[in-house]
Amino acid sequence: MIRKHRRTWPWHLLTGLILALTAWGLWYSTSLISYEWRWNRVPQYFVYQAEESQRAADYGRIESITVEGELANVILSAESGGEQHLSVASDSLQLAEGDDVAEGDLIGVTRHWAAGPLLWGLWTTLWISVLSGVFGLLIGLVSGLCRLSSNPTLRDLSTVYVELVRGTPLLVQIFIFYFFIGTVLNLSREFAGVAALALFTGAYVSEIVRAGVQSVAKGQNEAARSLGLTAAQSMRHVILPQAFKRVLPPLAGQFISLVKDTSLVSVIAITELTKSGREAITTSFSTFEIWFCIAALYLVINLPLSHIAGRLERRLGKSD
Fold it and tell me: Where are the transmembrane segments (predicted)?
């Protein structure tokens, strides 16, 4: 039987048309409020040329100035007898040869490229996400196994933890961790933010792990025990590898949510990506441009995570 080839290009064309209409609708909406787009103000919040002032260290005079391209090499002779050599941008020179200088006088500036607030905010979001994700995975794995334990105390405590964390908003947990626990234990805001995110993520990972382990047929554990493996060995070598393949998609989704949840730690003055964006808006007045850039940066983080998780899931699926 010959399968009939289905043409897909009309559907791709329809997709492009819908996206184009969405973009037009966005542009038209902003035109109704007379919004003026200023994309030229945005790049400086990613990278910019920082200026560092070069000043005279002592009283003296300028002996010579040698210009080499964009740099000017300045030699100052001090009254104490020493010399000071400075390299500054040639277009920033404030004095000429033979001029007298006092201690602290500005000679010029040096320029170098530096990361802007949005890049620093992106870096903060990344390391907070990684640390919270690692600790959340460990907490969730232990808690999930405790929920399956035959020990009533371990099972009850893990259940209380999961239900308490999942039943309260993350924002409230961050406030409690920082203003109450953090104050009592003298914790830094970064530590409090990572801890709150890790505990929040761990509660959801715990349920994912529990469901994954319970989805493995009981016969697998019984067969492993019949071969002489202990309960711990059976869980480690037989049950968990199979459960991991099944829980990978929800785990990936949970870690993607974690990256977005890091925006909430801005309420305790951690300058991550969202807070950096708000600060950039106050100085640039480019509200829509900055928020679109922030959304794009979150996509830059999360889309590769989704792609890697999908490839790993397919690769593990082939090994069954």
Answer: 12-30, 126-148, 160-181, 288-309
Q: What is the pLDDT of residues 83-130, one digit of tens each?
A: 888 888 888 888 888 888 888 888 888 888 899 999 999 999 999 999
CA distance 249 to 156: 27
pTM of the model: 0.82
Tell me the pLDDT tens digit for each residue of 280-314.
999 888 888 899 999 999 999 988 888 887 787 77
Alpha-carbon span 316 to 162, nearest angstrom: 29
Half-sphere exposure of 189 (CA within 13 A, CB side): 12
Going from N- to C-terminal start, the domains of the chain cover 48-115, 117-318
Angle between helices 273-284 and 117-147 (to 10 degrees): 150
CATH 1.20.1560.10 fits 48-115, yes or no: no
Within a 13 Å sphere around the CA of 258, how many CA atoms are in the beta-carbon half?
32
Residue 10 neighbours by CB under 8 Å, 6+ apart: none
Three-state DSSP at 3 gives coil
Q: Where are the alpha helices (DSSP H) in the chain?
A: 9-32, 117-147, 152-166, 170-175, 182-185, 189-215, 218-226, 231-234, 240-261, 273-284, 287-318
Domain 117-318: CATH superfamily is MetI-like (1.10.3720.10)
